[in-house]
Structure prediction request, 1124 residues.
Amino acid sequence: MNILDKNYNPEIWVKSREIPELKGALDALEKSYQEYCIGDIPSPKFSKFRLFQDVGDRNTYQKDFFRRQHRLFTCAVYSLIYPENEKVFELLQDTIFDICDMYAWALPAHMGDLNTINQMELDLDACTMGMALALIKRLLGDRLHPLIIKRIDTEIDRRIVEPFLSQRWHWEFRENNWTTVCAGSVGCTLMLNRPDVFELVKDRLNHDMQTYIDAYGDDGVCTEGAGYWGYGFGYYVAYADMLRSFSNGQIDLLAGDKIKSIATFYQKMILDENVVVTYGDCGLGGKMTKDAGLVYKFKSIFGDIYEFPPKSTIVYGVHHFPFFLDTFICYNESYSGSDLSRNCEYFMANQGWYVKRTPHYSFSCRGGSNGESHNHNDVGSFIFAHGDNQVLCDIGGRPYTRQYFENEYRYTYLETSSRGHNVPIINGKYQGNFRGAKAYTSFENGTVSIDFSEVYNLDELKSLVRHCKCFDKRVRITDDYELDGTFTERLISYIEPTIDAGKIELGDVSISFDTTKATASYTVEERALELNEDGSIKVGSDVYCINIDVKMPSRSFSFDIEVK
Amino acid sequence: MFDKFRDPKFLAELREDSKYEAIRKEYKSIYEKKYIEEPLNLKFSKFRMFAEKGERDSYELALNQHIDAISLNAYMALLFDDEIYFSRLEDALYDVLSIYVWAIHAHVPDINEENYYELDLCSTALGATIATVDLLFGDRLHPQLKKRIDTELRRRILDPFKAQIWHWEDRYNNWTSVCAGSVGVCLMLKYPEEFDALLPRFNENMRKFIAGFSDDGVCYEGAGYWGYGLASFVMYALLLKEYSNGEIDYFKDDKVKKICCFFEKVTLYPDIITNYGDTGVDISMPSALMYSLKHIYGNEVWMPQSSRIHSTQSPLPMVLQFIEYYDSSYESDELRNAEYYMGHAGWYTKRTDNYSFAGRGGWNGDSHNHNDVGSFIFAKDNRQVLIDMGTRFYTKDYFEMPTRYTYLETSSRGHNVPIINGQYQANVRDTRSYTSFENGIFSVDFRELYDIKELKKLIRHISSDDTSVTINDEYDIEGKSSFTERLVSYVEPIIDTGVIEIDGVYIKFDPTKAQASYASESHVYKNLRTNTIEQTTVYLTSIDVKPSENSFEFKIDTIK
Prediction:
């Protein structure tokens, strides 16, 4: 369902006040109002704008930017649901006026050369800003002041339509979330505000969309991680759904097995109620993916194959405007949350990802390569979850800075380097991201085997194969290798380990191995949760890095992860 | 131009030499008062208030906070060697270059249409300021900002100026000099080739500005607008003189000189001026203007106390001119007793040891007009006693008919002129007064200003000695008539037989011929020092003259 659908009913907004199940959404709206809509927002400052280029800091500028953006989203939805509140509507118009004045809608982090004038950069936030304004004009146009409407039209033409028509954009070749978020929101903006232009560029946009789908294997795995799946595929669906209505059903980009496979990706990534697989630059909760709007929309489109997540885990938020609108537009009382199934197992052959949920624990391991979008050096790594927590974990991404995306620094961080993942350290060395290097993964007789020696690119390492086998309350990891040098198993946890006679205790979980073959120890590092302007850690949390040094020579080492 | 300000030697002097200590101190204190790091948001809901409700202050206040940050930080970056001001200057530029429209909302004709290019007083002055920043700091500015300055000056100033003839080019008042002068300065500094091509048009604009004054140099709009309009003219003319290597020199022109010397002629006491029309009571002259004029004309120009150093927020080029021509020896001017009759305009001023007085003829068709022909101001001990209350605070209604003359501030019922047959002066096309000054008597024939058929004659004769002024009104009204003298004051009158005491001044008349009474009303104005809207009581004294009379005389005496 979308606002161009002939069954779309404009009365849903006011009616949603009466729907008990949308109380969470209304509460989120109220909370956002308190958070983003009170008081003045500091006027944009060049000294903040240039920080990214000068020192790599994104947050100082983005804080005010997102406050403006979230204020826009909040006031718009608020005005739809509470049309009698003139104060909020006035603030909405003030915010649109303000946003039309902004030097750029793109983020400095995405603008390349700051020495030139660039008000036309099409990045994620510029494109989605255009779509948000087009949606607002469509939904509230009869109440907006004529000048506000004209300014929206002018700025969409100037900042979205013209730059899109004037060149091919890097994200049209990028095969990741950028492709669909940018092309999808440009496409929706055009369908809503410039249908004449849309007809001219329809094929190009559809081709962009296909580029994104082509990057997936038939297994539907999003290598960027579960968070970016929600973002990227969410915009794919938003575009495709609107296009289906716009073209009176003539163009359907939502049909086919591969789309279905992608659509069910997230449900395969769930480890526990609040725990997902967090490979790559994924936040620990994978929140976006449980966005109510996304969930309702996917359910409305994909029906039975799409498993509705447990209702308690659904997240309401204004951060992604089209999704927040969908919370109301796509809501259907017949959708109900299901209990999480605790007996399932998925092997996703193209990417070599494996996920298993059991009544006692959940487990995931992965092959793949170190050349992915938002890559971490984590081939062969795994996650062991128990009691709604990752116990042996993937700590996910680091707050974004310029350096975080520069080759020189990318793999120096705990979050990205293999030293922060559950993979061996060979001869004191970590994995690299070497061109063409990848893992070979198979799943036979209940055992996942990952041959991943290539990603270390070491002459002294002749072979390295990891076998993971799940039992009732236990997972056994066995590494077979041929190696001239030292071999250390690295395990990552937020829980401080107790090491005692060959047993490593992590709360309810223990790791055991043959003490005659290896000794365990651990160090503490800090994971970044928030950064200072210079990129140093402002707020962090302790991460325990466990080393199991294997006595050499040896050809194989095993350890068991067991729930008490 | 402004080469000095790019010379490290001069900058070092400016920052360290004791000669500039007073300037540094003054500017720093202004900066501390006026610079606002987080200016109020420029909300659409404020922007639309003028068109919809006639309210202009809330948006203007916010707009000025954004704009002022450019000049403030630019001069601080010159006066002090501290990087913070330059960084804040860049922040202010980045902010202001993005503002929807640089004009004040009150000057945007139709807010339903997009309009980023309106050339008004505010947008043009901002253009001149930004061009000056570009000239002074261009080498240090971040390349993006440097390029944006060019883009925005073209888009918002140069292109719109070239695209059409603007209404103010035909206006003969402060708008002409402020807008044309500021655009001219902007182009001289930033786009000299464009300026050269447009010079004839600027010349014509300035010719009209000068033509807007009387041959005696009187600014009909009042002293406040004299300062405002002339400051821009002088800024422009000084730069043009330098730009043309002395070839174009407006200051040699006799009329320009008279205009430049006008202020002393309407000054009653050091802090009290003749504030006819929309002039505030508390006005102060732009220091840039006064120091520039002293620099040009020396002792022929009197420097008012209120302009000693910096008193108003000026566009950056003026600030630089002020610093350039600053000379502490200009600060010792004393106001001398004098008498001026400005025959072309019909204005009269007299300063004595015991009082000062100003009277006027003219007409009711001035820019920023009040219906006040024949009115006067009597001042004593550095304050107005019989007053002109000056302007009301600005709203949309205030500039629109038919509301313009409903206000006490604009109507003749709020001025020191007669009420005839219960009627006030009108604002009728092609009516005027006729003034003369003979044997020390200033006479105003102002019959035409009353739209009353039965009024055949109305002449006011004003004579004076060292301690008093005598007003004699001769009139001829056919049929049943009434004639009331109106006197306006801030101080409550004390009425006795044949004498009214107001604030230590005695108005004496023949009690057998007339009877006095008074009422009070409130006057709403903007306090220019605190920028707040304030209200005060004014007293309207009426002296009703018996119908049998055809003349009436009263004496304003400083002696009991």
